[in-house]
Amino acid sequence: MKRKSLCWKILSSVLLIISVILALMLGAEKVSLAAVFGQGDKFENIILWQLRLPRVLLVFLTGLLLGGSGAVFQLFFRNPLAEPGIMGIGSGATLGAVIASIVPGIMALTGKGGVGAYISPVNLCAFAGALVAGLFVTSLAFSRGGRSSSVMLLLCGTALGTLYSSLSSMLLLTCNKELHSIYTWILGSFNGRGWNELLFILLPSVVSIILMFIVSRPLDLLTGGEKSAAALGVEVDRLRVLVLLCGALAVSAAVCAGGTIGFVGLMAPHIVRKFLGPKARTLVPFSMIFGAALLLLSDTLARVIIAPGELPAGIITSILGVPFFLALCLGGRK
Amino acid sequence: MNKKRIFTLFLFISLISALYARKPKTSESRYPKSIVALSPSAAEILFTIGAGDQVSAVSEFTDFPVEAKAKPVVGGFDGKTLSIETIMSFKPDLVYLTEGMHNFLISTLESNGIAYYVSKGESIASVEKEILEVGKITGHEKEAAKVVDDMEKKLKKAAGAAKKDGPIKVYWEVWNAPYMSAGSTSFINDVIKAAGGENIFADLSDAYPMVSEETIIAREPAVILIPASTGLESSAVGLRNGWADIPAVKGGRVFVVDDNVYTRPGPRVADVVLELSDLLK
């Protein structure tokens, strides 16, 4: 049993490494091996080092965040459908981006030197939208106190998420001639993202990933319910705050990186559970690994399938993931 | 059983009426008196050929000429924000639609016997053809012919001014997050071509495809055009990672242009081509 799980661990790590290599090798433009050593022609070097590498790192980090936060949420809510996306944070980020693209003056901040030149105002507003949505749903769900607050959170999150999406659609239809400006937020794409976004989300991502490791131990004790966990010495209220904080940070950062990418956070933990069991200490890190591998493969396909055109990665994630996921769920393996 | 019969009868009657409705009812005059123009370019064409008095309503974003702006508005340019009731309240005898955007109105218009014209707006040639057709429909044939003649003169002038040593590589940026450009079926592709340029994404058939940033850089455009509606300034383009070495950035040939005019399939397209051919020199 031990040896088997070790095999799976090694396999998934190899899968991740292969995904990274493929993502760096493949793209719309061919890059010679010489460029890897900085010996390619001028544009080959730029493409590899300025465009492809930062994008791969960004996708990798986003995958870690989505997979890890999905695992943490499923463990905490003891609900196989829970993922941070269900808190309405993704829709909140989209609404922030929409507001930024509509309010006159916000977009004009770009290119005027200062912050605007390095991080797009739309990104800032999306991040703010995600955080505000996360805090709002949390305060709403816990305003009544009591034990049902976790369920309340899922319900409020779903309801508010729908509200944000509707508000976004309304604003777009009434104030905007074209939908392309928020295309990324809705479909999920890493097109045109690079070092700037990576630096922008680095801090919240690192904090979030550290929190995931901190909460994974007490989460193991939660499997028997909040009461028995409390009897074992877990401070459930504190744990809840940490889980929500890590989820909100993870999703806000992920949305800023590549828009709304569903399903990775939901699926990765289920796959890992199938092969490595439900223990949080393996579930959280390996969900990160699977999330990153899936997202890297999706983004690579998105970049090459119709090159020089591109597809939104969020679409590929589902096309790749859903059949695999269903086969796994319906398979008779215990 | 009875229901079925009533339904069949209803179907039969609506079929007959639909057949009758195919022919616009001939009123006292042969020409429409109440036109609803559902796009800025439609309004512009009508006013330019002198049919402005026959226009009773326009759509949102209609901004040229000034007289067109003063007309009542029936709703947005996007079909989803249009109210059929509002269109009907103007008792139109001609509704001027845009292909793709307003096709959902056709069945309603047909069943009510209201004439309609569908604008394709796919190329400069199709705009000229449209102006002549609308001139015929509205009774302004002569003016329409004059407008098209003027356009032709400007287009010839632009073609004459074009560089002799092949077309200039142009990148038209629809949006930068994600990067979107214009493919071969877009109107702007035709405008760039007429001005002596070559759209670097002419090999994509989609009108407004999402494109790879790697390819933008690898294809080395000599000129980059940024629509003003993006809110971007030309200086922002050079600040992007890896863009500094693109010939257009190096040569300071990143231009912000008024896309309201550049991408509008209307009579001013000839002026646009002339202006753009100057920029590409």
Mind summarizing the main beta sheet of chain B? 4 strands, parallel
Mean pLDDT of chain B: 88
**What is Rg of chain A?**
20 Å
What integer is the average pLDDT of chain A?
82
Using the alpha-carbon principal axes, give the shape of chain A. globular
Proportion of β residues of chain A? under 5%
H-E string of chain B = HEHEHHEHEHHEEEHEHEHHEHH
Give the CA-based shape of chain B.
globular
Helicity of chain A, in percent? over 70%
**Most strands sheet of chain A:** none
Low-confidence stretches of chain A: none
Number of DSSP strand runs of chain B:
10
Which sequence of strands runs across the widest sheet of chain B?
2-1-3-4
Structural Rg of chain B: 22 Å
Biggest chain pair interface: A-B, 41 and 40 residues
Classify the helix fraction of chain B into a percent range: 40-55%
Oligomer: heterodimer
Q: How many helix segments of chain A? A: 14
What brief labels describe this structure?
heterodimer; A: about 325 residues; mainly alpha; about 0% strand; globular; B: about 280 residues; alpha/beta; four-stranded parallel sheet
What does this protein structure show overall?
Chain A is built from 14 helices and no strands. Chain A is mainly α and 334 residues long. The longest helix of chain A is centred in the N-terminal third of the chain and has 36 residues, at 42-77. By secondary structure, chain B is of the alpha/beta class. Chain B contains 13 helices and ten strands. Chain B has helices at residues 2-21, 40-48, 66-69, 84-89, 106-111, 124-138, 141-161, 187-194, 213-218, 234-238, 247-250, 259-262, 269-280, and strands spanning 35-37, 55-57, 94-98, 115-119, 168-172, 175-176, 179-180, 197-199, 223-227, 254-257. In chain B, strands 2-1-3-4 form a four-stranded parallel sheet. Chain B has a four-stranded parallel sheet with strand order 8-5-9-10. In chain B, strands 6-7 form a two-stranded antiparallel sheet. In chain B, β6 and β7 (179-180) form a beta hairpin. In chain B, α6 packs antiparallel against α7 (141-161). Chain B is globular. The model of chain B is unreliable at 23-27 (pLDDT under 50). The interface between A and B is large, with 41 and 40 residues.
